[in-house]
TrEMBL record:
InterPro entries: TPR-like_helical_dom_sf, TPR_rpt, TTC27/Emw1. PROSITE patterns: TPR (PS50005). SMART domains: TPR. Pfam families: TPR_8 (PF13181). This is Tetratricopeptide repeat protein 27. SUPFAM superfamilies: TPR-like. TPR repeats lie at residues 453-486. It comes from the Eukaryota. Belongs to the TTC27 family. Keywords: Repeat, TPR repeat.
Amino acid sequence: MFAQNNWTGPPVELQDEELLPTALLQNQSSSSVRDSVLSSLLLDGESVYSLVSNPLLLLLSRVLLSAVADKTTSLQLVRWWTLRYVALHQQVLEACSPQLLTLAQSMTEHQSLLEKHQNLLLQFHLECVYVNLSYYEYPSAKEHMRRAQELTGLGVNMTGALGKRTRFQEKSVAQLILEVKREERPDWTSGETSPAPTPVSLLPKDCALNDDTRLERISLEDPEQFCLPELSPEEQAAVLGLCTDFQKNNPVHKLTEEELLAFSSALLSKPQMFSVEASALCLRTKLERGQRRCVERAMMQTQALVDYFDDPTCPVSERLKLFHCCRPPPRWSVQKTLASLLTDLGCTSAALLMFEKLQLWEDAVVCYERLGQHGKAEEIVRRELELKETPGLLCLLGDILREHQFYDRAWELSKRRSARAMRSKGLLHLAQHQLEEGARCFEESLRVNRMQLGLWFSLGCTHLALQNYEGAAQAFQSCVCLEPDVSDSQIIFIIILYFYKAFLTLQEALKCNYESWQIWENFLLVSTNIGAFREAMGALHRLMDLRDGYKDLEVLEVLVRAVAEDLPDREGAPSSALKPKLKELLGRVSSRHSREGAVWRQYARLYGDGASESPDDNDKALHFLSKAHRCELQDSGWDQDPALFRGVLQRALSMGRGERRMFLSSTAIERKRRSVVSILTLKVFSLKPR
């Protein structure tokens, strides 16, 4: 009944008095009972969607299934129904719950009781696929999908076939289609418990494209050759499971979208079940919303699915067939998709009304921003807070006003259980360049809920910026553990993990081949990345010995920044101690590349860019800046490119201000004379017409 009211429809009105004893409801309003139920369903700091229908049914399911599963083994399917409870509860939470993952893992280990009923075993494996995909358990999901495919004996592959996609296409070209072949398996039978197909007239309407150019579906030259076999409802669900697994394990790309469209077209060609049909229609809508010729159909199809939820024509017994092994989206998710489509089509006001009706305040705030009503966004959130103060609304107000106090209030109101509060507070710290505070907030949020993939990645990047390589490695390792296919996390984690090993290995390699400039260059890059600045300077010296004219401006910039800002090296020692050696290195580089303005600018930065407390350092810095300026003027093209010209002018004015400061603070006549000459030269340069 909970699934009926929130996923399949048609909705059924239930009162608390029908489910709970009267004694429990005395002196309590229905709103207070609902608030208590929603609070009880909160897990790992992740709250339940506020408009979920009849949440008491879900809570009762959890209590009953937990009590029965722990005390008896005679009811053979209790663990399977507990797994179904986990799937439903997770879908109404804002993010993944580690508690539900632990419970699901303990439930998926008991499948021996289903070995004699192949169709039930197939459904069980398909349900396990969706549960594991929800928690980034991709290897487990693939194993369950493999077993499900073995049970059906289906061979599902992408292939090409000649066909036409548009009405005016004269020549057939290769089209991507789904090929499904069934192996002869005498041991596979659908069984008495296999559901009968639902009449097509009772299923959701498949809206026509009605485009003047594009065909409704691909017109193949030989349609009989690639005609899908007659599939049972469970086999269709297995194909849908393969489609979902493929979608989760592949990046967002045009080719991926074409393959997913092939899956959806095959499933929609022979509709049999509500759950399969609704899932395939939602997938096609998601893929077509970005296509100019299909976006109208996508909107109409989503509206048809929204209307179907309240349509009593199709009985709930038909809608719930294979529901748990197909994972159709919940009602509010389809409505949110419709509102998003309206936004894409420019109907922002209509979308805003839908978001407000669904109490999706974050999306409503975005609509207000698009409409230019910035103050209205704050007003509506404050209005809702007056009705009821919740951590989610406080966090949203913090997002709007960019103030930490609202996140702190949400954190305390949730009794330090709101992962969202600390996550948002950390992101605000990052926006304000407060990296250490941001990292602490991220860690606090992850302490509440460790299954936040994006937050682990953000924490790793923050630690990288803080040069905390050990913390970054741990964060990216957690990111990879959650989702092994996150290529960015894999690459960064591998880089961090092996930089230190590479550093030691290259040191040994140089002992064997001291004359190889390639090894020295690799050693230079690795040393710079791990903060071995002394070794990096030595590598630069050696590379200049081995190769005439060698320079690496990026490495020089890193070394100068480390020394100028006194950053800690890989051993935690202050880099300012390396200043004499860096001066020696820059002296050698500048002597070889005296016409390279960038080298002189780094030399000047090492001496404080003319803003040091030492007059001698300021004198040298301004001298180097003057040389850099002359080098820039000698380069061709700077006076023709506005961006280059602007950069040269800004640096010249900055140097002029430094010379003026030197003139005012200096007592030496010769120094004052040089400052006057420099200022006049820069003045003439800045006034010269271009």
